């Protein structure tokens, strides 16, 4: 697998202060540049930006899901694939902050190609996040 380059993604949030507390405080992402309408975060080496969208209502978060391994996976969602020790540390951090899980941390596709640890949660604006990990990222990320 070739060396990966950082991705850039920008998502809407309804409250910059709540986004800063969640991404900076709960997830522990270092903050980069910012302005009153947006904040850059270092999300495990990737440029993740929140942009203020005052029309966004977290109570109306997209409720669309697809069935995967007996769970309703939120659509859309975004996240990062981590090394297993980093995933476990993030899981423990999120649990210590008492996050409300969309799908609690568990191992998906046990004993099959692509076996992975995964967890889903929502940020204060209702954006769905997934963090996953493989024991062998290079060998399992795209395994069929």
From TrEMBL:
Q: Which residues form the signal peptide?
A: none
Domain of life of the organism encoding this protein: Bacteria
Q: Where is the VOC domain?
A: 5-134
A Pfam match is: Glyoxalase
Query: What SUPFAM superfamilies does this protein's entry cite?
Result: Glyoxalase/Bleomycin resistance protein/Dihydroxybiphenyl dioxygenase
Designated name of the protein: Glyoxalase-like domain protein
Give the originating organism: Botrimarina mediterranea
